[in-house]
Design a protein that fits this description.
The complex is a heterodimer.
Chain A lengths: L2 H31 L4 H14 L2 H11 L5 H10 L7 H25 L3 H9 L4 H12 L1 H16 L3 H6 L10 H10 L3 H26 L9
Helix pairs in contact in A: 1-5, 1-8, 2-5, 3-5, 5-8, 6-7, 8-11, 10-11
Chain B lengths: L7 H22 L6 E6 L6 H12 L3 E6 L1 H9 L6 E3 L4 H8 L3 E2 L10 E6 L1 E6 L9 H5 L6 E4 L5 H12 L3 H4 L3 E4 L2 H9 L5 E5 H4 L2 H6 E5 L8 E8 L5 H12 L1 H9 L3 E2 L2
Parallel strand pairs in B: 1-2, 1-3, 7-8, 7-9
Antiparallel strand pairs in B: 3-11, 4-11, 5-11, 5-12, 6-9, 6-10
Helix pairs in contact in B: 3-4
The chains are: A mainly alpha, B alpha/beta.
């Protein structure tokens, strides 16, 4: 078992999930509370990574954000090295790649909150930030959990972006899913079986966690 | 997830369409004109297409090539991928397949050894607009070389050669933290060409493509620094097109094609 890759996958997924929460909560609130045509465009854009081949994303990050474009050089001078082949590069890729998995459950959860509660909060003088933090988020806590778990799992399972952008560097970009691929390609099926079992275990555990929270009868009274 | 809901009726319609489509596709794939499927090492990607075109003109046999790292193709063949021929970038992987009874070195005197069709050359490639000195062994010792792309030594023969060459130069340990590993030799070239890596140890076949000749320069790594990259070919035992596969082998080893290999960065065996 490659514990270094295990640790790296968990660190990557944690960093990605933390960043995604900061982006996804306000974004989902805007999508639910906002009015106007541009809302549909924003929603389409946030859903795009879900249907976009990961290789497209890997290509953009490698070539368009690489050292041959002005933008890429800007990023490189900001973080001290090009995005490719680095942990921070993978975080950037993962945040984009897993964005819909954080936003979609939150949109569904926020939309299910009784709108009269939002109106009441507004009448009592709550600003938009307070409405989101004191009304929407607490009432959609299961959606928040789903958003966290799905972003985390989706990042652990990420493969295409990492393969195109990673460079297979131990401790920086060699994630568990890449290790599994390497093991299969080196005919090391025993080790591959172990790695696959760990990845399977992480996914099953996390999903059981979500469903036991969301389906426990009377665990939380919504009304 | 908010996805549009499908009615039961449309689901049944989609399912029925699938059921009808599957036999039609299966029929199509059983047509007699199935192309000869060639599994080829990634270093052949710039070399093989014109040769396959000439083969079609000479014999009327259609071919389809898949380019990947040699180990990856070997895994695929072990798992039943429908290839007819395997052109590896080394002798080890085809030998492995022969040992497993999955391939044979048809026509060769020693049936346990794949036929060598060419030898590969490792080069150090660097973009012309790089701020570092031009490619040479000194470039490998340059502390400003931050990222050196190589192919994965676990599965790509050129990657193994790169590690062997760096080890002969006693540079491997010091360069190790700065090495980025590509999926195969073509991706190593891509890493260097896109400037994400400062330089790459790539195949001469990649370095001699018009694109890389235009964007960069290369230095041939002295052959005594790494074991020869002998490239072997085998026929996949499950092939249903043995005659066509033999024709391709003869064609590949014929003098005009061997001369062409020489022009694309491989060392011919004849």
């Amino acid at each position: 078992m490659d514990w270094q890759a295990f640790d790296l996958s968990l660190r990557l997924a944690s960093a990605t999930t933390a960043i995604l929460l900061c982006i996804a909560v306000p974004l989902a609130a805007v999508l639910v509370l906002g009015r106007g045509r541009w809302i549909a465009a924003v929603e389409a854009l946030t859903t795009l990574p879900m249907v976009l081949p990961p290789t497209v994303l890997g290509f953009f990050l490698l070539v368009l954000l690489g050292p041959r474009t002005a933008f890429g050089r800007g990023i490189a001078s900001l973080i001290g090295h090009p995005l490719a082949f680095s942990f921070s590069g993978l975080v950037v890729g993962s945040v984009i790649y897993s964005l819909p998995f954080a936003v979609q459950p939150l949109v569904a959860g926020f939309a299910a909150v009784d709108s009269s509660l939002v109106d009441a909060a507004r009448l009592l003088g709550a600003g938009p930030v307070r409405v989101v933090l004191s009304v929407l988020v607490p009432l959609a806590d299961r959606s928040l959990l789903a958003a966290i778990v799905l972003s985390f799992l989706h990042t652990v399972g990420e493969f295409g972006v990492v393969l195109m952008l990673g460079g297979d560097i131990p401790g920086a970009t060699r994630t568990l899913s890449i290790v599994l691929y390497d093991q299969v390609e080196s005919f090391n099926y025993v080790a591959a079986g172990r790695t696959a079992a760990v990845l399977l275990g992480i996914s099953v555990l996390a999903l059981v966690m979500i469903y036991s929270k969301t389906q426990m009868p009377g665990a939380r009274d919504r009304a | 997830m908010r996805l549009p809901e499908l009615s039961m009726r449309s689901l049944v319609a989609i399912f029925a369409a699938f059921l009808l489509a599957v036999p039609a596709c299966a029929q199509a794939s059983l047509q007699p004109q199935t192309p000869l499927r060639v599994a080829a090492a990634a270093d052949l990607e710039p070399v093989l297409p014109p040769i396959l075109d000439e083969f079609l003109r000479a014999t009327g046999i259609h071919t389809e090539a898949t380019y990947q790292a040699s180990a990856m193709l070997t895994t695929e063949i072990e798992n039943g991928a429908p290839f007819d021929l395997f052109l590896s970038a080394d002798l080890g992987y085809p030998k492995h397949l022969i040992g497993d009874g999955l391939a044979d070195a048809a026509g060769s005197a020693d049936s346990s050894t794949p036929i060598t069709y060419a030898k590969g050359t490792l080069v150090l490639w660097e973009r012309k607009d790089s701020h570092l000195p031009p490619p040479s062994l000194d470039l490998l010792r340059d502390p400003n070389l931050k990222r050196l792309a190589i192919a994965n030594p676990e599965r790509a023969p050129y990657g193994r050669a790169a590690v062997a060459a760096l080890t002969s130069l006693s540079l491997y340990e010091s360069l190790k933290p700065r090495i980025v590993t590509a999926e195969n030799i073509a991706q190593a070239a891509q890493f260097a060409d896109s400037a994400n890596a400062d330089a790459g140890l790539i195949s001469l076949t990649s370095a001699m493509t018009p694109r890389l000749l235009a964007s960069g320069t290369y230095f041939v790594i002295p052959h005594n620094l790494y074991p020869p990259i002998e490239q072997g070919v085998v026929i996949v035992s499950n092939t249903k097109q043995r005659a066509a596969a033999h024709k391709f082998l003869d064609f590949l080893l014929s003098s005009p094609v061997q001369a062409e290999l020489a022009k694309s960065g491989l060392t011919p065996v004849k």
